Amino acid sequence: MGNKISILIPVYNEEKTLHMLYERLKRVSEKMDYDFEFLFINDGSKDRSLDIMRELRQKDSRVSYLNLSRNYGKEIAMAAGFDYVVGDAIIIMDADLQDPPELIPRMVSYWEEGYDDVYAKRRNRAGESWFKKKTSYWFYRILKKLSKIEIQEDTGDFRLLSRRAVEAIKKIKEHHRYTKGFFSWIGFNKKEILFDREPRAAGKTKWNYYKLLELAVEGIISFSAAPLRISTVIGFMIAMFSFIYMIYVIMKTLLFGDPVAGYPSLVSLILFLSGIQFIILGVIGEYLGRVFNETKNRPLYFAEEYNNKKIM
Ligand code: UDP
Ligand code: MG
C-alpha cells in the first residue's frame, strides 16, 4: 500500500463550484497524513472551468488537470481519469459538492484495512424530486433482477478504489459504459458507508430525464441479455394462445357453420401484434447498435492538454 491519494473529478461547466470544492478538499487533506493529487477532468466545458483549473494548478502543484477535446459525458470522462490518475487509492467525486469531501478520511481508513472499493451510499437525497427518487428506486430493483451481478442500490460513482481495482476497470474498453456496473463486475472487497447527499452547491444538473433514461437503458443492456429472452417468452406465449384460439375457431366452424367473423377484432389484433413485433425489433436493434459501435473499435476519447502540456 502506497501513500498517495488521488481525487478524480469529472467537470462539465462547473465554474461556480470549483473554487469551493478545492477549498474543502484542501481543508480535508491538511488533516491527513497522505500525499494528494486533485485530478480534474475537463469534459469540454464551455464556461471558465478550464481557466480555473489552470489557476489552481499554478497555486498548488497537487492540482492536475486533463482537458478532453470535447464533451464526452461523465462516463468517458471517468475512463480518461483512470488512465491519468497516479494515486495508490483513487476517490471519484462530483464537482458540485453533492459528494462531501469530509467523507474522505473514513473511506481511506477502510482502504487501509484492505478494502478495494469503499462506496458511499445515499441515506437520503435532499433537493431531488419525488419522481427522480422513485424512478431511481425502481431502476435499481429492475436492474438487479435482470442482471446476475449485484449492483449497489442508491449509490453513485462517489467511492474510493484501490489501485488494483482501477487497473481492472482500465482493462474494460467498452464504449457504451455503465461504469457503476463495472465497479460491481470487477469484484474485489467492497465496503459500504452511508452519507446524506446534499443538494448541488451551485449551477444546475446536466441530467435531464431523457439522459437518465438513456443511462438506465445502458445499464440494463450492457449487463443483461434478459430483454432478448423476454421477447422470446412473449413470442411463445402469443403463439400458444393463438394456437388454442385457432383450434377453438376450427371446432366452432365445423360444429356450427361459418358466420362472418368480426372485422374490428381482426384489425385490433393485427395492430396489437405488429406493435409487439416493432417493440421486439427495437430491443434487438438496441443490442445490434451496440455491437455495431463496439466493432468500430474507436478510441474512447481524445485529450488536448495535460497539466500545461499539449498532447500531440
Ligand atoms: N459531468 C461531466 N460530463 C458531462 C456531464 C456531467 O463530466 O457531460 C460531471 C459534472 O460536472 C459533475 C458530475 O459529472 O461533476 C455529475 O454531474 P451532475 O451533478 O450534473 O449530475 P447529478 O449529480 O445531477 O446526477
Ligand atoms: Mg450533481
TrEMBL record:
Gene3D superfamilies: Spore Coat Polysaccharide Biosynthesis Protein SpsA, Chain A (3.90.550.10). Pfam families: Glycos_transf_2 (PF00535). It is a multi-pass membrane protein. Its main location: membrane. GO terms for molecular function: glycosyltransferase activity. Coiled coil: none annotated. Residues 6-168 form the Glycosyltransferase 2-like domain. Keywords: Cell membrane, Glycosyltransferase, Membrane, Transferase, Transmembrane, Transmembrane helix. It is found in: Cell membrane. InterPro entries: Glyco_trans_2-like, Glycosyltransferase_2, Nucleotide-diphossugar_trans. The chain crosses the membrane at residues 230-251, 263-288. GO terms for cellular component: plasma membrane. Belongs to the glycosyltransferase 2 family. GtrB subfamily. This is Glycosyltransferase involved in cell wall bisynthesis. The lineage of its organism: Bacteria, Bacillati, Bacillota, Clostridia, Peptostreptococcales.
